[in-house]
Structure formats: structure tokens, C-alpha cells
Amino acid sequence: MMGKRLAGILLHPTSLPHPATLGEPAIRFLDLLAAAGARAWQMLPVCPPGPYDSPYAGRSAFAGDDRLIDLHWLVERGWLTADEAVLPPVGRPHRVDFAALRQARWPRLQRAYQRFRASSSNDQLQAFVQEQPWASEFALFETLHRVTGRPWWEWPPEYRDLPPPAPIPSAGLDDAIHFNLFLQYVFDAQWREFRAAARERNIVLIGDMPIFVDRDSADHWTRRHLFLLDANGNPSVVAGVPPDAFSETGQRWGNPLYDWDAMRADGYRWWIDRFRRALALFDAVRVDHFRGFVAAWHIPAHEPTAVRGSWFPGPGRDLFDALQRELGTLPIIVEDLGIITDDVRALRDELGYPGMAVLQFAFGGDPDNPYLPRNHRRNQVVYTGTHDNDTTLGWWQHLPEWERDNVRRELGIDGSHIVDDLISTALHSIAETAIVPMQDLLALDSEHRMNHPGRAEGNWTWRFAWEQVQPDRLAWFHDLAAETARLSDG
Predict the structure, then answer these.
(1) Angle (deg, nearest 10), helices 24-35 and 471-483
(2) Single pTM value for the model
């Protein structure tokens, strides 16, 4: 995708209409993208989500989200019947109930696994496990998590301190571990077919990599030596950002922070493996909180807010040089939003990675605002909004009048078609890549917002319906992509 003008759509796969899977719904969305002249599908992290179903607090930096497994794919292999693959709708219009969805899917997946074990030689599964060493660690983590019902640091010592691949400490877990391996094998096989379908349609897939991992994750459990811990093995400091204009107490995210000296000592092996896995799934990856590689805000773990933190240096270019020596040129988009210092911009530009420009952040009145269309750069990705923003329509409806005036004057519009105007502005930008959230393509209001930062519950559940997609809307976007030279080659 780098070096060419293209337009894309931001949509997490769980926001596909019911049933949101890597099967027919995902393929149908690829066809929708092609019809709209969109050459990219950007997603949020596709890892198994952590607390409150957040994909940014995943249980693994490597594993796939089993909620996306297509049950009809299992029917084709004789592991489910056609009737068993039909799921009842869960949730309410435009919102999915993930707990109910998992309750409906889980017995079907277990049934498919038992038939797989009875009818298959398991050769392909074993080959997958050998190729993906993280899978065994994750399967054991998931099994012990389900057995105990607690975060790993509250497990009994024989589980908590188990260093994989040590012998299983309790009988009866082998089948559950094998089941979790089966889920990852199926996700991987289905993803390969899905990615091949995207390539057939000349559509690139853009993933998302959070800089930090969740404390209650397989990565932290198995690699505690790579994190800053106290004498009892608990995080001594946690991640966040300092107080700013948006929050008097900052943001205390609570993720464990890396021991960069320990990571440097083994050549950043975990990061190399992580990027290799990401680029096996995606054509490009957005790296979240890029500034944390230059310096991260370290908050003492006992502090309830982010006020009493300090900046500590990260690995800087050393990490990315190690990555490129082993993996070659990295197709990375860096999340460089918010208050970004000169050293962060310098690292971004030295490495040649495109940053982000979000139009909703552009019109506060500062003529030097880097998100203003006239200040965009060619090596950049422009968005109308992101998963953390309101929809463009909702943003406009809640915008103060003085800022609406700024938008009208800057864009030369009257604001009566604000969603179309902002999409048009994004695609007309000099930035090589323009990404539009699906909510904006459908011109939806705040009811369809994906995430409210700082609010723990009620996020990530949005989904659209096929009947919301109007052919004339796709044709309009296609014509706009052609007008702005963002159509597919040939």
C-alpha cells in the first residue's frame, strides 16, 4: 500500500452483521469494499479480547479471536451439521451481546472439536503447533484461566509459577488444552482463506498493534522477566499518560511496562516474533501509542491516578533497527496523535513511517494544527475519525458553534452535508492513504459509536446491518475514489 494513493474503510470484524465471522459475512464485506472502490480494510486488534471485551487489552499478542470462527466452515469439514451452524441472533439492533454470543457458540465449537478428534489424523493441527510456538503457551493459559476463573497472579502456585512447557500439574486438562489449540488452528486456517480472498480483490488488510499487553495475558504470564516487577513479582510501575487539557488526573491504563534492558539483551526476540505474526495476518499494521517507544509515562503501581508519574526512555530506533534487520522493511502506520514531542516526530520521520491525521481534531483554531487539510503530508494516513471518536455526524451535532464556524470557513461549506464533506476532504487530501470509519460511510449518528475512551463498559459492541448499505452510497464513494486517484491499479 505504501507509495500509492488509496482509500479504505475502518471496521472491526465483530461489527459485521450477524453472524460476524471470517466466512460469508467477511467475504461479502470485501465485495462491498470493492464495489465502493476501497482498497483497504482497517481493523482493530483481532486478539482474544480482555476485560469488557476490549481488543486493546487482549489475552494474547499472538492468538486470534475465536468469536470470528465461521461455523459453516466447520460444516464443510463434517465437524458440524448445517442445523448446528445456525446461531440465534443475540443482542439488540446494532449492538451485539458478546456474553450471549459466546454462550451460544461454545458448545458448538466443542462439538466440532470432538468430531475433529474422532475423524482427523491431527497432522495439520500438529504442524500448526510446531510452526506457532506461542499457541501451546496460550492454550495452557486459556485452560488454566477457565479452570480457576481468576487472573493468573491469583492462581494456585502450581499453576501460577508453571514455566511452559513444563508438565501439566493437574490431570484432566489435556483435552481442554487440545481444544484451545484446535480453536487457534481453525482461526488460522480460516484467516488464510480470508486473506487470499482479499488479495483476489486487490484489497489490503491493515491491522492494529497495541504497544502494551494486558497484565492478565499469556505474554505477561510466560515472560515476566521482560517486565518491570517488584520483589513479589507484581508490576512496580504501570502505563498511562500524564494530566493534560482533557484530564486533570491523566489516564492510568494499568498495563505492565517493559524492561527494555532485558528485551535488548535477547535481541528483542519477543517483538520480532510479534511483528512476524502480525505481518502473517496483515499487509500493514498501525502501531498504537508510538510515542511510548521514545518515552513512556511510568506510574508507581500503588498510585490511583496518573498524576505522580515520570517519563522514562524507551528503546527508540534500536528496536526498529533490530526488527528491520530480521524482517525487512516494515509496513507500519504510527499512531502519533495528541501531544507529540519533537523526538517522537524525529523517530517517525527517520524511519519513514506514515503518521495519522484525524479531521475531527483539525478545527480548534490553530493555523499550525497538523490535522488541518492544508497541513497534511504525503506520507500520512488521514481519517475522518477513529474508533475512539464519535461518528462524524455525532461529532458535528455536539460541536460548539464557534468550532462549526471554523469548519465552514476552512472547508468552504455550509455544513448541511457535513459527513460527505469530511469524507470528500479526506479523499482529496495529499495524504496517500485515506481511511473512513464504516459509520461515516453509512452517515450514522452517535448511537453507532464504537468506543468512549475512559468508559469501561458498553464499548466495542456496535455492528451494522446489510440493509443500511445503499448502492447509491457505494457508487458515490467509488466516484469520489476515482476523482481523487485512489482507485485500484487497473
Answers:
(1) 50
(2) 0.96
137 is catalytic: no
Spatial separation of the C-alpha atoms in residues 281 and 276, rounded to whole Å? 9
One digit per residue, pLDDT tens: the chain, 490 residues?
A: 567 899 999 999 999 999 999 999 999 999 999 999 999 999 999 999 988 999 999 999 999 999 999 999 999 999 999 999 999 988 888 999 999 999 999 999 999 999 999 987 788 899 999 999 999 999 999 999 999 999 999 999 889 987 766 677 666 799 999 999 999 999 999 999 999 999 999 999 999 999 999 999 999 999 999 999 998 889 999 999 999 876 889 989 999 999 999 999 999 999 999 999 999 999 999 999 999 999 999 999 999 999 999 999 999 999 999 999 999 999 999 999 988 999 999 999 999 999 999 999 999 999 999 999 999 999 999 999 999 999 999 999 999 999 999 999 999 999 999 999 999 999 999 999 999 999 999 999 999 999 998 788 889 999 999 999 999 999 999 999 999 999 965 4
Which is catalytic among the residues 97, 259, 318, 388? 388
Q: Of 288, 336, 432, 440, which residue is the catalytic one?
A: 288
388 catalytic, yes or no? yes
Amino acid at 358: V
The amino acid at residue 267 is: G
Q: Which three cell numbers stand for residue 351?
A: 524511519
- Axis crossing angle, helix 418-428 with helix 471-483, rounded to the nearest 10: 30
How many whole angstroms separate alpha carbon 256 and alpha carbon 367?
A: 38
Active site residue 208: no
Cis status of the peptide bond prior to 19, with omega within 30 of 0: yes
State the catalytic residue, choosing from 137, 208, 219, 335. Answer: 335
Spatial contact of 40 and 204, defined as CB atoms under 8 Å apart: yes
DSSP secondary structure string for all residues of 197-241:
HHHHTT-EEEEEE-SS--SSSHHHHH-GGGB-B-TTSSBSEEEEE
Q: If you search the block for the grid coordinates 535488548, which residue do you land on?
A: 264
